[in-house]
Structures are given as structure tokens and as C-alpha cells.
């Protein structure tokens, strides 16, 4: 139950992220967005540590692996997403982002010797078909879109797939807070370098207004800091495939926010898409959920 609650919460948070990126990208640029969301996210996690009066044992953690995950799960894909959203719509970007579970599964089999059952593959494919229903997109339209925008977005999903599997394999014993904080610190420093290299330091005095501040806080505090605590928890307690299934739910929650905040209409096909996505999630994650439930029961019995 905790895993599914984390999945739903994260999808609600990330359902607003592509909108926030679209709001910020013109004024801040792709790498400016990466820096702002990473820095605010890192400050949020640091504040949580101070409030809880906890410390991270930095000397005992695999620093190189954490830096690699920070690059592959934040710095590079976030920069690529920012670039893509200068060329394609946020709706299309979220649809392409929904290929993440497919790349996660394929890379898991090829690079990390992950064994997936036929039922799990079926669930992944059913979920992706649900995405197509959800946004009412003719697959042939993909070939009519900006190829650079599409390509950079696909490259971002590959990065997510690799980093999710790598985290599950190599960082299982590291605390979720340490992974999330190091991810955001790496991304903060790396984005500063990229801003210098690309000469894209943004003029803050020209871009900040209340809408911008709202988008910064939403993307940084919630969409980066708190979101990555949930994401890495789902990888460790569940699986890389389970965690990346959140990208199937993001278009649904984006539609929910549009309906709730902007009174936008939800297309009829979205209901069928939602049913397919939920069926796909159930098929692909039933085994994981059972394992986690059994583990929680064993811990409770031992107390």
C-alpha cells in the first residue's frame, strides 16, 4: 500500500512539472531551469535534515556511483527535457516521457541481467497503449513533429531508464535521503558548468514575477526535492520498473490538474486510457507489491 501511495503522490507532483518547465524555459533557458530546480530541491532536503537533526555519513557512501546517478537521473535528462520543450509541446513531451518504463525494462535486461516475466512485459505494453488512448494521439503524428525535440526527449527517457536500474543494482544499501541530496547537488554544480559553457546565465531581474516564482517553487521544492525522496524510495522498496511506471500516470494527473484548476474538459478516450494504464500497472507490479507487503508483515511480526 505504501508503494502505491508513493506512486500516486509522485504522479500528482510530476503532473505539474511539464507545465512549470514550459513557463520557465523561455526566461531561464534549459540549463537555468536545471540549476534552479536542483538548487531549490537540494535546499529543501538540507532543511529537512536540519529539522530532523540527522546527518549523512558521507565517508561511507559510494560517491562516484552517486555522482553518476546525479548526472544520469537529473543533470542530463533535465537539460534535455528543457531543450525539447523549446521545440515541442509539453503534452507531447509528457507522452514521450511515458516511454521510460519501456527503456527501463529493455536496459534492465540488456545491461543489468534483470529477468522480466511475460506478464510484466504485457503490463508495460498495455500501459503504453493506454497512454496513446489517454492523449488521443495518432502515432503517425510523431513523425510530423520536430525531430530534434523528439530525439532529445527520448534521450532523456533512456537516461532515466539507465539510472533507475543502476540505482536498484548499486545503491540498494544507501539511504534515500543521501541518494536524493547527492543527485540534486551534482545536478546543481553540473548545470552551473553548462550555463557557463553555453553562455546562458539568465538575467533574473528580467524574468522573475509571481508566476515564475510559483513555477520555481513547484518544480524545485516539490518536483525535485520531495519528488526524488519518493522516487528513490520506490526503487529501493519496489523496483526500477515500478518506480518508472509513474511516467504512465503523469499525463493522467496533468489532465486532472487541468480539470481541477482550469476547468478543462477530459476527453472520453481518457477514461479508456486510464483503465488500460491501471491494468498495466497491476499486471507489471503485482509481484513487487506482494513482496513488499510480505516484508512489511514480517517486520511487524518481529517487533
UniProtKB/TrEMBL annotation:
Topology in the lipid bilayer: Multi-pass membrane protein
Query: What are the entry keywords?
Result: Membrane, Transmembrane, Transmembrane helix
Tagged with keyword 4Fe-4S: no
The answer to whether UniProt assigns keyword Hydrolase to this entry is no
- Subcellular location(s) per record: Endomembrane system
Q: Which GO terms describe its cellular component?
A: membrane
Start and end of every EamA domain? 4-134, 148-285
Listed transmembrane segments:
5-25, 31-51, 63-83, 95-116, 123-141, 147-163, 175-198, 210-235, 242-260, 266-283
- Identify the SUPFAM superfamilies for this entry: Multidrug resistance efflux transporter EmrE
Q: Name one Pfam family in it.
A: EamA
UniProt lists the family membership as follows:
Belongs to the EamA transporter family.
User: What is the protein named?
Assistant: Threonine/homoserine efflux transporter RhtA
Amino acid at each position: 500500500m505504501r508503494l502505491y501511495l508513493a506512486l500516486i503522490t509522485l504522479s500528482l507532483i510530476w503532473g505539474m512539472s511539464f507545465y512549470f518547465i514550459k513557463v520557465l524555459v523561455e526566461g531561464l533557458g534549459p540549463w537555468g531551469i536545471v540549476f534552479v530546480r536542483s538548487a531549490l530541491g537540494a535546499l529543501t532536503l538540507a532543511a529537512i535534515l536540519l529539522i530532523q537533526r540527522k546527518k549523512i555519513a558521507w565517508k561511507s557512501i559510494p560517491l562516484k556511483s552517486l555522482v553518476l546517478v546525479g548526472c544520469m537521473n537529473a543533470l542530463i535528462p533535465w537539460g534535455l527535457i528543457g531543450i525539447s520543450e523549446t521545440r515541442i509541446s509539453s503534452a507531447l513531451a509528457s507522452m514521450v516521457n511515458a516511454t521510460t518504463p519501456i527503456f527501463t525494462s529493455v536496459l534492465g535486461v540488456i545491461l543489468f541481467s534483470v529477468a522480466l516475466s511475460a506478464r510484466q512485459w504485457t503490463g508495460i505494453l498495455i500501459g503504453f497503449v493506454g497512454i496513446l488512448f489517454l492523449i488521443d494521439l495518432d502515432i503517425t503524428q510523431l513523425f510530423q513533429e520536430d525531430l530534434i525535440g523528439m530525439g532529445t526527449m527520448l534521450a532523456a527517457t533512456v537516461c532515466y531508464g539507465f539510472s533507475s536500474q543502476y540505482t536498484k543494482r548499486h545503491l540498494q544499501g544507501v539511504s534515500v535521503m543521501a541518494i536524493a541530496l547527492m543527485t540534486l547537488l551534482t545536478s546543481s554544480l553540473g548545470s552551473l558548468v553548462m550555463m557557463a559553457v553555453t553562455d546562458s546565465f539568465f538575467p533574473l531581474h528580467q524574468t522573475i514575477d509571481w508566476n515564475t516564482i510559483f513555477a520555481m517553487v513547484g518544480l524545485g521544492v516539490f518536483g525535485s526535492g520531495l519528488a526524488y525522496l519518493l522516487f528513490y524510495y520506490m526503487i529501493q522498496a519496489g523496483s526500477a520498473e515500478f518506480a518508472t511506471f509513474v511516467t504512465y500516470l503523469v499525463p493522467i494527473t496533468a489532465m486532472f490538474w487541468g480539470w481541477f484548476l482550469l476547468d478543462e474538459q477530459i476527453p472520453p478516450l481518457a477514461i479508456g486510457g486510464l483503465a488500460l494504464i491501471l491494468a498495466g500497472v497491476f499486471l507489471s507490479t503485482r509481484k513487487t507489491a506482494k513482496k513488499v507487503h510480505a516484508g512489511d508483515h514480517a517486520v511487524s511480526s518481529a517487533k
